[in-house]
Protein: PCP degradation transcriptional activation protein
Organism: Paraglaciecola mesophila
Amino acid sequence: MNLNRIDLNLFAVFDAIYTAGSLTKAADVLCITQPAVSNSLARLREMLNDPLFVRTGHSMTPTPAAQNIIGPAREALGLLRKSVQESHTFDPATAEISYNFAARDLLEASIMPRLTARLQSIAPNITLTNYDISRSNIVSSMASGSLDFYADASSAFVDPHLCKQKIAEDRFVVIARRNHPALSQGLNLDTFLQLGHINISQRRTGAGPIDVALDRLNLKRRVVMRGQHFLTVPAVIVKTDLIACIPYHLAKHYECSIYELPFELAPVEYFLYWHVSADHDHAHMWLREQIEEVVTTFHPSTSQPSTSER
């Protein structure tokens, strides 16, 4: 039997006939016509190569094959009905769901701890997993259900099968080791350009937002080290006289001095992506609401200190 030919609607008709004992009563239960019930039964008979029911007087008597099938069929239909019902009556306190994320280290370090802490109290059986994935595989992974969310500091990722929402914004600041000999009087543009920089980018070459902004001013910084992850920056900063530009909500967790950029730069924006098939799923919608709640602190501070923050 070819499983691709199975129509679950046929088993709903089969269950109704088995329960009602006649095609006419089954049609009344299903709110369809008696010919439609007969047609469904004929298709199921052909697919299973068994008559399933034989007429006995005014009733339809199930065959041994039908008696063997009815239990598993009802169990499968029950599971399907339960799944559909739960999709409309999501209860976070009892839900057992695992959500898969693909997010850069910055978002993993800043958002995931807040989200996990929030879920521990209101949805203790929900688990989160974050892993790296090639951008070229995001859409197919979401379509297959193996990936639920993709988060990135980019709005340029466009695909008709994905939904997108801006969830937060932040600002870049400069970090340096404490008591840096060149920064005792604060950070100005000349010092910023003279010092060696750590540049964070997943690409081997190319300009990032800092370099693009400087290029508009016909300026260029001195990049000494190029790395892929923001989380490795502090380990280098505390051992050298290098500086780095990183988002404030990450910088504030480190034992470093923080300085405002000595030039204008637009805020960095964070976007959440998910597949269109999950857009109206109640459980998925609920988790998106929780993400929105935990990122409410990710707005650029209105204060602009002139020297450093501790």
